[in-house]
Each structure stands twice: as C-alpha cells, then as structure tokens.
Write a structure and sequence with these properties.
Blueprint: H1 2-5, H2 8-25, H3 33-36, H4 38-41, H5 55-74
C-alpha cells in the first residue's frame, strides 16, 4: 500500500499543471483533471486485501522493533 501512495501529491500536482497548460491552449470541453488522469485520483480503498494484523503479530512486531532499537543504541 505504501508504494502506491508514494509521491501521490507530486503526481497530482503534475496533472494539475498539465491540465492548466491544456486549458490555456484550448478548451478542455468540460473535462476535469480527474477525468483526464483517473488513475492518479482514484481511491486506494478497494486495494485493502490484507486482513488486519492480530494482537500476537502486533506484539511480535513491537518486540522486534525494541530489539532493533537496543542494537542501534549499543553500536557507535
């Protein structure tokens, strides 16, 4: 999920710039930026196929993060 959201704002701003250039040069015929670039503005809610993590998985991840933090504090 993180990879799909990476640089989303930058891509949306670039699409806005393209739309502004098209609008300045010719009539957009009622189209909006979202009509021209639907893949950038679509919702990612339908991509949530992963089930939420369980309490045990959360505890394991928390313990792993604590071990990594302890290791990084002991190393110079």
């Amino acid at each position: 999920m993180g990879y799909r959201q990476r640089d989303r704002l930058k891509h949306q701003l670039m699409a806005e710039c393209v739309y502004a250039a098209i609008y300045a040069m010719r009539d957009p015929k009622g189209k909006t930026v979202a009509d021209m670039f639907p893949q950038i503005f679509e919702d990612d809610d339908d991509y949530d196929d992963e089930p939420p993590i369980t309490e045990d998985e959360a505890a394991d991840l928390q313990a792993l993060m604590e071990r990594i933090n302890e290791q990084s504090e002991t190393q110079p």
